[in-house]
Design goal:
The protein has 14 helices and eleven strands. The protein is of the alpha+beta class and about 400 residues long. The protein has four domains: about 180 residues, no CATH class; about 100 residues, no CATH class; about 60 residues, no CATH class; about 50 residues, no CATH class. A five-stranded mixed β-sheet has the order 6-7-1-8-9, covered by helices on one side. It has a two-stranded antiparallel sheet with strand order 2-5. A two-stranded antiparallel ribbon has the order 3-4. A hairpin with a 2-residue loop joins β10 and β11. α2 runs antiparallel to α3 and α12 crosses α14. The longest helix is centred in the first third of the chain and has 21 residues. The radius of gyration is 27 Å and the shape is globular. The mean pLDDT is about 80.
């Protein structure tokens, strides 16, 4: 897996490449000309010793802050994904596959942070390097190899690693390497430990506010707008341990009661239980969000999106990896497993308790979908019938024609 950081991605993007990418999307020529006029007509001026210089035009790049720039950049960078798909179809690249029926994975693109996956062979490395070089040549992009990194499977030999590193002049990913704020390598035993930097973010925010000079109302607004929002992004992908949540809650609780003191070792006097303060205002609390409930709620939402869309790419990948011959409702825990899938499994019992299928015509599986509230105990109460007995497979097979029961 190769993580590529593009240097000055917005500033280097060629206008001709944007035009060709828009044309491939099937947009009308007049509309493309209007967009080209918008990105090519602005003029710029620099301040030299406090005095503005003469105005000049640029010849490439899109402006930071322009409402169109993010969309144009995504359309342009998507051409790399198109090129990778074409190379995959032509068998120039293989990508990676996590299971027998798993679709090949070749890339994960987000803005100027690119993850490209492939087999650890010299042929694949050379093909990928040639493709990336061609893309950068026609788009104007330049990889920042100093901020890029590569990750190999544990089964790859050192000889192969050294050969591929000659093709891509990057460092090996370590445990501190992150992508989009998330650590890419998690320890097997205590995965939450990789997110200790979230606690550091909490602590680093405290010196910026003279909380002991603020009223409790002001502290409450800071907790709602700042401290309760910091971990939400990370909580959407991993179920933190109760010990980790307790550390975050302790920081917020001390911030609320005492603010920032010169001697932080002094114990604070808490006049009410924290669970009472976290209650809604209608229940006599202050409406401070419970981090544990937020974490579980976000993962339940992710599990629900995952369960209701079995045709999604993520569902197909995880199904081929972890529950190939079952449905998500009957999936069992296997090892090893990713942090995300492990978190989803822990949320499945709650999801089952609050989910059911609309029967309509009854064309749903009797054994693999939660079609009634007691579905989880169906298998336990099954009475083994004599040999040759045909068990019903669909819910509609239980219906008696002409009767309501």
């Amino acid at each position: 897996m190769l993580k590529i950081d593009l240097a000055k991605a917005f500033d280097r993007l060629e206008w001709s490449f944007i035009v060709s990418a828009l044309a491939r999307k099937g947009l009308h020529g007049h509309f493309i000309n209007l967009i080209h006029a918008c990105i090519s007509s602005p003029t710029f001026s620099m301040l030299i010793n406090g005095q503005p210089s003469h105005k000049f035009k640029s010849f490439r790049g899109i402006r930071q802050g322009c409402p169109m720039s993010p969309y144009l950049f995504v359309i342009a960078i998507n051409e790399l994904s198109v090129a990778l798909n074409e190379a995959l179809a032509a068998h120039h690249l293989q990508g990676i596959s996590l299971g027998p029926d798993c679709p090949s994975i070749h890339s994960l693109l987000f803005a100027d942070d690119l993850l490209v996956c492939g087999q650890a062979t010299m042929q694949e490395a050379n093909s990928m390097a040639q493709l990336i070089h061609h893309f950068c040549y026609i788009s104007g992009q330049t990889p920042n190899w100093a901020k890029s990194a590569i990750l190999f499977s544990t089964h790859v030999s050192q000889t192969t690693i050294q050969e591929i590193k000659q093709v891509f002049p990057v460092s090996i990913m370590d445990n501190n390497f992150t992508h989009l704020g998330h650590p890419l390598i998690l320890p097997a035993k205590n995965r939450t430990a990789a997110y200790n930097f979230v606690i550091d973010k909490f602590l680093n925010k405290l010196p910026a506010y003279k909380a002991n000079m603020l009223s409790h109302a002001a502290r409450l607004e800071l907790i709602r707008s700042l401290f309760s929002a910091i971990p939400v992004y990370y909580m959407s992908n991993i179920l933190f341990t109760k010990k980790f949540i307790a550390k975050l809650t302790a920081i917020i609780r001390k911030f609320w009661w005492t603010g920032i003191r010169e001697n932080n070792s002094n114990k604070s006097l808490c006049l009410r239980a924290w669970k009472d303060i976290c209650n809604s205002k209608q229940e006599g609390g202050l409406g401070i969000r419970n981090l544990q409930a937020i974490n579980e709620g976000l993962l339940l939402a992710a599990a629900w999106r995952f369960a209701k869309d079995p045709s999604s790419h993520l569902h197909l990948v995880l199904k081929s990896k972890y529950f190939h011959d079952a449905s998500i409702w009957t999936a069992i825990s296997t090892t090893p497993k990713s942090a995300f899938w492990s978190s989803i499994l822990k949320m499945l019992p709650k999801l089952k308790d609050h989910s059911f299928y609309q029967l309509t015509q009854g064309n749903i599986s009797l054994w693999s979908t939660p079609w009634c509230s007691l579905w989880a105990s169906v298998h336990d109460n099954l009475i083994i019938q004599p040999s040759g007995y045909i068990y019903p497979s669909l819910v509609k097979d239980l219906w008696i024609p002409g009767q309501k029961v």
